[in-house]
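Folds vary. Our protein:
___
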Amino acid sequence: MKSEVIAGRYADALLAAATEHKTAEAVLEQIQWYQKTAAASTSPLLENPMIPSEKKEALITRLFTGGDAGSPASAGAKILFHFICLLLRKGRVGYLGDIFRLYPIRYEAAMGIIKGTLSLAYPISDDLMGRLKGKIEARMRRRVTLEIKQDPQILGGFVFATGTELIDASVKRLLVDLEERLKTIPVA
């Protein structure tokens, strides 16, 4: 619990610095890049107390300032370079994984983005997906990021769900509603 609080404060500070420099999205992209390509091999080295700080900073320099072939060199990378160096100097690099896990959550909240699951009976075209996303965003009055799932049990239509919201426009729901209405009709 304590580590979550500390990591959250660092994630908030990183987001504040990135927002101030208008690079919050670039930092998010760099974090995603790091998690996909370098975290598994780099984190144990950064957390190892036997490795001198100079070598750790040299590794971070190669990763985030373009000193390594294929590594990004953007404003977001520069902010992350300085941020990780700060964590190294403060002895808090052990929180890096938690910070990088929390940053996207804090970023989405700050930008007013809702994450949701969109269940479809079958795949739909990109054009239709764009229009559907637009309708959902209009109804939610916020931007949404969608995780698409295929669920043949809904028969058709879609179901959009977040942690607190549900839009059920499925054929299955329509059939259940129709069944309930038919039960209320008196048969003579």
Remarks:
- Confidence is low (pLDDT under 50) at residues 67-72.
